[in-house]
Amino acid sequence: MHLSSKLSKFIPTLLFLATLTVGGFSQKGNGVGEPFVKCSVYRLDLQDSEVISNDGEFFYVAEPRGVLRAINSRDGRTHWTAELGGSISSTAASDSGRVFVVSTSTDDSAFLRALSRETGITEFVVDLNSSQSPTLAISGETVLISDSNQVAAFSSKDGAQLWSRSHALPGKGRVIVGSRMALAEGNKLLLLNLEDGRVGSEYSFEFPISSVAFANGQTFVGDSRGTIERVSGSSWRYKTGGKIVELAATEFGLFAASHDNFLYMLNADNGKVIWRRRMSGRIAEGRYLTESSVLIPVVGESRLFVVDLKDGKLLNQIELEEVVLSRAPIVRRDGSVIVPANNGLAVYSSRPCENKNGGELSSPP
Hints:
Layout: E1 37-43, E2 50-54, E3 58-63, E4 67-72, E5 78-83, E6 87-88, E7 93-94, E8 98-104, E9 110-116, E10 122-127, E11 135-139, E12 142-146, E13 150-155, E14 161-166, E15 174-177, E16 181-185, E17 188-192, E18 199-204, E19 209-215, E20 218-223, E21 227-230, E22 236-239, E23 244-250, E24 253-258, E25 262-266, E26 273-278, E27 288-289, E28 293-297, E29 303-308, E30 314-319, E31 330-331, E32 337-341, E33 344-349
Antiparallel strand pairs: 1-33, 2-3, 3-4, 4-5, 6-8, 7-8, 8-9, 9-10, 11-12, 12-13, 13-14, 15-16, 16-17, 17-18, 19-20, 20-21, 21-22, 23-24, 24-25, 25-26, 27-28, 28-29, 29-30, 31-32, 32-33
């Protein structure tokens, strides 16, 4: 397995977070959502560190010299820090008991590390025999890692390698996991068997792949020129006017967001439009779907839009006081929304905040 490198700079040094008690994207009887208000801000230094993952309870922050910090999203306090050494060279993925990350030593050797989600103590380490930056994902009890030569699967229980397969993609490949597993890079897509890593199907497209989704055993692909295509079963194609920046299976159909400024809901069986909604500008690459709604950032707008997945109607909007960075907003389990902003991460709620003015609750050493 050839798998390292440096993450781009993005985040930490937390100064405060007010604890929230909120609901979600609830509606009043007239169909207009309760207004969101800013409750607090994670004050963050944007120079040397990066928030690499969020699992609803903790933020995982990669810091210089291979330090991984877990921050409680309820009160902003540091839950634990782990000094892994070298540098952290992947995103983090977590299950109910462990958080997984790839770290790179000073000699560019890469290691998969499994840490206790509760304590941060390392539970096992796997030498990946690599010097490249990997992509990492988790599916059930399997941790998947891909570099520019191979994709490998490891047991999340003990780190045992389950299988390893070489691939011929023009790069390391993005790992997409759902009801199936895929590797996508450039205009090529590989569908793999999760059990043994064997390639089940291989596809080449005219233009680079920008989004992949799975639904009912079928595979859907969006490309950089605005085409949405069902590539398995009874195939169909639907053409939009811009790059597909989001593709997701929902109970209402296949949701898509395009750089033509439209949101779409398509019938997954035949590609016919169920509804479409024009937004006020270009849809930013980063949005969040709940079971019934989607949170949409628009380039140049100082607000986020909450759209009903059932019919495309506007449910709510969040007026922002910060300049939003080009990163996806995060919807927490309690329904509050965390927005990457120029001064850190701002927390918004559609219900009264317990401590709207906030206060300095924690400051990492």
